[in-house]
Design brief:
Chain lengths: ~110, ~300
């Protein structure tokens, strides 16, 4: 519950402060969002599994965002940015789907 | 570490990914916690606080991404709409200027005819007709060529190279055949050819005097009565006939009475300069480039 409130607080903060993203970082924002969603769904699933761990969650969140950003940056430098971000989205998407399926089983027993 | 065998990824990484999407770290941490004594005090609450901070950060990230996406979309479509509007406006300006130029040209023509004596004016008009600077009317020939229909594979939808396409070369050949058949004026799709006209290809388009023309192409010529017979006997007509037979390009020509060919756009004077003093050089400095009147190397 507190977690959801914290999330909402972040969203409100974002709307209220309206921070501008440096234009150099803008291409990585969508990938960062997908990576963050992966960490969040992993965390939710771990919570439902009863094995949630704060340290693990924080580290997975930060490293996911950073690694996804770095991979895409590297791809941009090598000229395969589009393909690499597709790869990142596919891998993270698969993980998100798997975790959401597990969450669904927990919540609806189906 | 107990989760060691889980952490070593199997050779088939994707299968592993599908089967076990959760970070193995969670299981490891749970295992560690089960064996360790439960933490108390700040050691328990600090990680929790960090998690909450992370979640706030996540919310911030989502809000930022949302705002970026929303902000990026209209600017993109706005830029597009702006460009479209600019193109439309320039086109309208261009049309208005062309109309004005035509009007002024007619005015100049009228003034000149009024100023000159009858024979000089007639002489000038004939020269203009020959060089493509004046509108001409007369009987002649219209040659129509069009690309063969694009053949595409029924399954893949991929078309091969269309051998029945009209090339710039074909239009050049037709124009040259018409000139050599005695044509006095030639135009392609309503664009008059002069001694300095070019017909060339750029990409997939054919440019006549650097303006694109699109098929079906209509080459109109005003010339003597034998023009049709001479054109039919020309090498260009025979070649195009065989291409149309083999590859489906459409090629036809017919005599047409009372054709009107427009004037060519005003040529750029390359060597002529305005005479400095009316008395110094009363004539001869504005004739531009002389040379052979036969365009495109066609013998005329």
């Amino acid at each position: 519950m507190i977690a959801v409130l914290a999330l909402l607080a972040g969203v409100l903060l974002g709307v209220w402060l309206d921070p501008t993203v440096p234009s150099a970082l803008q291409p990585y924002l969508p990938i960062a969002v997908v990576a963050a969603l992966d960490a969040v769904f992993g965390g939710v699933r771990a919570k439902l599994d009863g094995i949630f761990d704060d340290k693990q969650f924080v580290i997975s969140f930060i490293s996911n965002v950073l690694v996804a950003g770095i991979i895409v940056y590297l791809g941009d430098q090598l000229g395969v940015g589009g393909q690499l971000s597709t790869g990142v989205v596919v891998v993270l998407g698969v993980r998100i789907f798997g975790n959401v399926a597990a969450i669904r089983r927990h919540l609806f027993r189906a | 570490m107990t989760g060691q065998d889980r952490r070593t990824y199997a050779a088939d990484f994707l299968t592993e990914l599908f089967h076990n999407p959760l970070d193995p770290g969670y299981a490891d941490a749970a295992e560690r916690r089960r064996r360790a004594v439960p933490a108390t005090g700040w050691r328990r609450s600090a990680p929790r606080a960090v998690t909450l901070v992370t979640l706030v950060l996540l919310g911030l990230l989502l809000a930022m991404a949302y705002r970026e996406t929303v902000a990026a979309e209209p600017s993109r479509s706005k830029a597009r709409a702006g460009l479209v509007a600019q193109i439309k406006q320039r086109e309208a300006e261009n049309a208005a200027l062309t109309e004005q130029a035509d009007r002024l040209r007619a005015e100049v023509l009228r003034q000149r005819d009024a100023a000159l004596s009858g024979s000089a004016a007639a002489n000038l008009r004939n020269l203009e007709a020959a060089t493509g600077l004046g509108r001409v009317r007369g009987d002649g020939l219209v040659v129509r060529v069009a690309d063969a229909p694009e053949k595409s594979d029924g399954v893949t939808g991929v078309g091969g190279t269309n051998l029945g396409r009209v090339l710039d070369r074909d239009l050049q050949d037709i124009a040259n055949a018409l000139w050599s058949g005695g044509a006095e004026a030639v135009s392609i799709n309503g664009q008059r050819l002069t001694a300095t006209s070019t017909i060339r290809a750029a990409g997939g388009a054919i440019l006549v005097d650097f303006k694109p023309v699109i098929g079906p192409y209509e080459v109109s010529a005003i010339g003597p009565g034998q023009l049709e017979r001479r054109f039919r006997d020309s090498a260009a007509a025979r070649l195009l006939d065989s291409v149309s037979e083999k590859h489906g390009m459409s090629f036809e020509f017919r005599k047409v009475d009372d054709l009107t060919l427009p004037a060519a756009t005003e040529p750029q004077l390359r060597f002529a300069t305005p005479s400095p003093e009316p008395t110094a050089a009363p004539s001869g400095s504005s004739t531009g480039r002389g040379g052979s009147p036969s365009p495109l190397g066609g013998g005329r």
